[in-house]
């Protein structure tokens, strides 16, 4: 394993760890306050779908280091499923019928994730037997694996669409904050983790692009445009979530100061 591979592995591992934790701050906030106020459910569902699309990307895009993306989003989806459940459970305006529909949708989405895990196990079997997740014929560089993978065009499309789901997911929540002038509801540490997460994935995708060019096989070059698309979206995501983190944190600090002043006045 050369130096480039080592750093790809390191940044992929760091990105994976943070990705798994993305839903944790909001989950902790919900369990602590037992309130789901000022929440835009479109944002959370878009992000939930985005995680699943990332899992699909990690399985069917023939990148030998794509397993980081798959496993990170796999565990993230399990944790985020609980976050989604409590968003409905602690909302007093949600009826039992709406809660039931939400639970059904969450369960069905997680069953899809589990089925994709089954596909991943086939890739692991290929890795054990052929030393590659996506094996190619040495002489022709033609893919010979059992799992169908995205070709160059599909890799490009999925590489552009996939990051857009998670990058723009909380834009409706941000818009709602501007309209109501109330950024309460979303934990500021959630977008903060996104910023840290994006940093590691930017480094991961940048080095993966270099690696794909160096190897030059048909399967690796097929992922090149997808990797570039993913990199661009990660940069955009960093900008979006930096703005969101700043606005939420500023609002919470301002609110706390006002509460302290009100307590001093009343005392």
From TrEMBL:
Q: Which residues cross the membrane?
A: 6-28, 40-60, 66-89, 101-124, 156-175, 187-210, 230-251
Q: Which UniProt keywords apply?
A: Membrane, Transmembrane, Transmembrane helix
The record ties this protein, via Pfam families, to:
PQ-loop
Under Gene3D superfamilies, the record lists:
1.20.1280.290
Location of the protein in the cell: Membrane
Q: How does it sit in the membrane?
A: Multi-pass membrane protein
Establish whether keyword Transmembrane is in the entry.
yes
Chief location category: membrane
Indicate yes or no for the key word Ubl conjugation.
no
InterPro entries given in the database record: PQ-loop_rpt
Which first-to-last residue range defines the signal peptide? none
Name-wise, this protein is PQ-loop domain-containing transporter
Q: What is the lineage of its organism?
A: Bacteria, Bacillati, Mycoplasmatota, Mycoplasmoidales, Metamycoplasmataceae
């Amino acid at each position: 394993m050369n130096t480039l591979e080592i750093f790809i592995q390191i940044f992929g591992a760091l990105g994976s760890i943070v990705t798994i934790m993305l839903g944790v701050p909001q989950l902790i906030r919900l369990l602590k306050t037992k309130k789901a106020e000022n929440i835009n459910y479109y944002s959370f569902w878009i992000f939930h779908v985005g995680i699943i699309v990332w899992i699909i990307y990690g399985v069917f895009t023939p990148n030998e280091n794509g397993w980081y993306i798959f496993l990170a989003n796999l565990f993230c989806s399990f944790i985020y499923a609980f976050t989604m459940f409590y968003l409905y459970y602690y909302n007093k305006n949600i009826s039992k019928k709406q809660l039931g529909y939400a639970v059904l949708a969450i369960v069905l989405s997680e069953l899809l994730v589990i089925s994709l895990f089954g596909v991943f196990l086939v890739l692991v079997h290929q890795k054990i037997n052929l030393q590659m997740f996506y094996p190619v014929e040495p002489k022709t560089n033609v893919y010979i694996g059992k799992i169908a993978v995205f070709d160059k065009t599909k890799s490009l499309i999925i590489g552009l669409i996939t990051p857009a789901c998670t990058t723009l997911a909380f834009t409706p929540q941000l818009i709602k904050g501007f309209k109501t002038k109330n950024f309460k509801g979303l934990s500021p540490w959630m977008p903060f983790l996104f910023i840290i997460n994006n940093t590691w994935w930017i480094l991961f995708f940048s080095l993966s692009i270099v690696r794909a060019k160096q190897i030059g096989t048909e399967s690796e070059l097929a992922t090149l445009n997808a990797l570039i698309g993913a990199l661009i979206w990660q940069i955009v995501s960093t900008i979006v979530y930096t703005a969101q983190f700043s606005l939420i944190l500023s609002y919470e600090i301002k609110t706390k100061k006002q509460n302290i002043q009100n307590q001093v006045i009343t005392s």
